[in-house]
Design goal:
Helix content is 45%, strand content 21%. The protein is of the alpha+beta class. The chain has 2 domains: 6-92, no CATH class; 104-232. The strands form 2 sheets. A 6-stranded mixed sheet has the order 1-2-8-7-6-5, with no helix packed on it. Strands 3-4 form a two-stranded antiparallel ribbon. Strand 1 and strand 2 (14-18) form a beta hairpin. The radius of gyration is 27 Å and the shape is elongated. The protein binds zinc ion (ZN). Zinc ion binds next to loops.
Length: 237
């Protein structure tokens, strides 16, 4: 016997049916019995959002379905004359959190830094404000150390030493570019405020830390991109 599908949408393209409703409320965190839907929206030809209501807490939540099969209309004149799209339940729909784009050279040279920045930005957007700053502080440390290590040829011993150093010592001891050095220093002060029990820079906040980290990234990107051009065109032709 064929699985029972419930039609949730009927539009120009045909009938769109789902295989089951969610049986778990993300708010109550318990199994629930849902036998109806509130609204359905076709995202593209292969996925569907269905809003359902929890019978316990009455909250609405959105579930995601992917298209499993497409059945052509019955041409005999007796059966269904529309296309029938069948969708499989995937789970709760998660909003996609868009993150900032960083300069190409930063993505290429420091992918780990960009990963940490993206996670930190997501934490901020999810309102996890007590930990987002620590993420930016970590991204700054990775950026400074990887930048210093990649800037000029260094011995393995030197590289190991840099990796183990305090961020402030790396900035003061190894960064020559004054813009990068001064901005990174200030970013590290605010980064420490985000990680330590007591805040020293009371008048500054997470947004200032993010602004300083982004400015540091801009100067690193400018320096490295400029260097690439100068190296690729050493002299006048
Ligand atoms: Zn509920």
């Amino acid at each position: 016997m064929d699985k029972q599908y419930t039609s949730v949408l009927n539009n120009n393209s045909g009938v769109h049916s789902i295989d089951k409703y969610s049986d778990f409320c993300p708010y109550c965190q318990v199994n629930v019995h849902i036998d109806n839907y509130e609204s359905a929206s076709l995202l593209d030809n292969s996925s569907l959002h269905v809003a359902v209501k929890c019978p316990k807490c009455k909250k609405l939540f959105v579930t995601l379905y992917n298209e499993a099969s497409k059945q052509a209309p019955d041409r005999t004149g007796y059966g269904n004359r529309q296309f029938h799209f069948k969708y499989h339940f995937v789970g709760d729909a998660q909003p996609e959190i868009k993150t900032k784009e960083y300069p190409e050279i930063i993505n290429k040279k420091f992918p780990k830094v960009v990963d940490i920045l993206n996670e930190s930005e997501k934490a901020k957007k999810l309102n996890l404000l007590k930990i987002a700053g620590m993420g930016y502080r970590k991204a700054l440390e990775f950026l400074m150390k990887e930048y210093v290590i990649s800037c000029s040829p260094r011995s393995d011993t030197d590289i190991e030493k840099i990796k183990e150093m305090f961020l402030s010592n790396v900035i003061s001891g190894y960064i020559e570019n004054a813009n990068i050095k001064e901005l990174a220093r200030r970013a590290s002060w605010l980064g420490n405020d985000e990680s330590h029990y007591e805040r020293i820079w009371q008048e500054k906040d997470l947004n200032d830390l993010i602004a300083l980290v982004n400015l540091t990234i801009s100067y690193v990107s400018m320096e490295l991109t400029g260097k690439q051009y100068i190296e690729s065109m050493p002299d006048k032709k």
